[in-house]
Amino acid sequence: xxxxxxxxxxxxxxxxxxxxxxxxxxxxxxxxxxxxxxxxxxxxxxxxxxxxxxxxxxxxxxxxxxxxxxxxxxxxxxxxxxxxxxxxxxxxxxxxxxxxxxxxxxxxxxxxxxxxxxxxxxxxxxxxxxxxxxxxxxxxxxxxxxxxxxxxxxxxxxxxxxxxxxxxxxxxxxxxxxxxxxxxxxxxxxxxxxxxxxxxxxxxxxxxxxxxxxxxxxxxxxxxxxxxxxxxxxxxxxxxxxxxxxxxxxxxxxxx
Length: 256
Description:
This protein is α/β, with parallel strands linked by helices and 256 residues long. The protein has one domain (4-236): 3-Layer(aba) Sandwich (Rossmann fold), CATH 3.40.50.720. It contains 10 helices and 8 strands. It has helices at residues 4-9, 11-14, 21-28, 41-51, 84-95, 113-117, 130-143, 170-173, 186-189, 193-212; strands at residues 31-35, 55-59, 100-104, 122-125, 146-153, 156-162, 221-226, 231-236. An 8-stranded mixed beta sheet has the order 3-2-1-4-5-6-7-8, with helices on both faces. β7 (221-226) and β8 (231-236) form a beta hairpin. The chain is globular.
């Protein structure tokens, strides 16, 4: 049962015909892992905590830089030089004291990925390199954890939701990373803060749908957004036979 405080705090989403007290209770009992507390991780973490996700692990080993502030609204000028996850955790606890926020001051890499994501109900990959995306994807497939992948650069954004053993994983859709010279990142190509906010909000929305059972997540689809003209393209994907990450998996149980 939801407490009177919860009924008031979450009243606007509880008014939705697609939502319910049972959906809210699913969020309260869920554990989300947010990998990367930057341009995507900032809006993702805010909306997960605000919606009532019971536990959030923030994973990032970076410190706040002045160049982060235009697109990472969890931080302020006074935070420059401080730990991202420690600062973010403090802000999120202030937003919703009922959310158990754990600051994991480390970088997720292949050797520690399974330990960091194991036992989660959902993982949100908010990193900005193909190497880290493959590491997160492979760990989630190995642990049977649902995953929402996203990326943003310049005016462009992509979002993909994955259920290991059931839908296409990141390696199914992108078997190999592009050549280094073809890759683009925010550091090379730039990004508008508002564009990161749009993509991060969609990423959080996908996670809330998966956790609550409301709506239809982007399983077997990749959403591509061009913020310059607001065009959107949805590309269908399928599991790839022989995929080294998920090819041998049987259908994973629903976390919703």
